[in-house]
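new request in #modeling-help
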Amino acid sequence: MTFDLEYFNIGYLDTLSYKNTFVHRLDPRVKILVSFIFIFFVVSFPKYELAGLIPFFFYPVFLLAVGDIPLKAIAKKVIFISPFAIFIGIFNPLLDTAVILTPFGIPVSGGWISFFSIVIKFILTVSTALLLIAVTSFPGICEGLERLKLPRLFIIQLLFLYRYLFVLLEETLRIVRAREARSFGKRGKEIKTFIRLISILLLRTLERSERIYQAMLSRGFRGEIRVHKSYNLRLQDIVFGVFSVIMFYILRNYDIVYLVGTNLRGFFQ
Amino acid sequence: MSHHIVDLKDVHFCYPDGTEALKGISFRILHGEAVGIAGANGAGKTSLLLSLSAHLIPTKGEISIGEVPLSKKTRQEIRKKVGFVFQRPDDQLFMPSVYEDVAFGPINLGLTDEKVDERVRDALEMVGCLQLVNRPPHRLSEGQKRAVSIATVMAMKPDILVMDEPASSLDPKSRRQLINLLRGFKHTKIIASHDLDLILDVCERCIIIKDGRVVADGLSEEVLLNEPLLEENNLELPISRQHAHYFLRS
């Protein structure tokens, strides 16, 4: 059953965040800021840029390699949501037919270039966001956001989302299994039962939220969740942050690919 | 001692949809008493516990806890006195890690950081779960979740402990540990359960409710061995006494 697999998949990203590597140990604030700046630089490229984007893969590859995250886990998720990016750019080759490049005598229209530019930007930004979660853990990110002074209410919502995502999925898993156990072949899998299934899930969720709220009240909840923890920026956090941002700046403003290319050509001649 | 007395006088409760869950319940629980509450499914056990922990306000009658009458104004005060362990640990554990969850109550009580830390460690130690301190709740087994949710309440040092089905979904060893833990807890305990052996082991007194009314209130040894009464309430003799019974018969 695919639902089971998907469930364990989500849990997998969570499991990865319990590792203890250099990037896992970095302060969550630094990782969030660096990743945010990274995304900003990537999307700032003009629409016909391809070569300049490629060196930016160093950042996700760095997180992947140092954080000991399997490529397959991230690649699968990126592919899973890729239709969104593909559909944004799919009509570019039809609308923008002006030829702007002719490598090896093959005319390539601007539409294709901008399409691939969108896809590469998508892969860079989404894989970085996923890797950020995989090397920081979701509560870690919430903590970082909180220390970056994001509104508390927003963060509490995110924390509850994370906590009850697993509970809700387990609940769904049980309902889906119960349906599987008593439906054979196509019968019992019609849209009608699906609607009922969803409504039962909604009702159970509402009831559960009521009970959770009571549990919170029982323990003195009065509108805010207070947590105390102390975190200090260490030298390695600052070095990592400064170094990454300088790298992004260089990669954005100097055509590294071109420089490396001409130098190599000079070397071989 | 006169404090921590739980006093119910003719308590009625009616849900907004018209279901009458409690129809005139009266009893008095003294300081340090351990009381089991038994009854068939739908007899009103959960509604009773929810009103004891100030989540439901009786539509008629009066509840007073430690001589504070329950009303909308005194809710907060009463919740500080009553520690309520919910039937499902997933409802009780809502923070991202065990530590933060156990610390939630003490922080809300306004304790200092060191005090909070001490309370968290003591409570987890008490239920034997100190090694789980940094785990997220969704990675615990059912028994561990149960133990941690008891710790979340213990960390608040309540005067009165109210539990709804504490032993459900526990393996026999964890259940035995829970029973020992409860016996060690010297404050007032109110435990609703279908596990009559647990009640017999932990509580000296037992109240049976049926259809929102008290039908029996007395020593556990007497109430829980009264076969016709138990039968009438969809209950059975505690397993530990069934054998003795058979021996006597044969």
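bot summary: The first strand of chain A starts at residue 99 and ends at 101.
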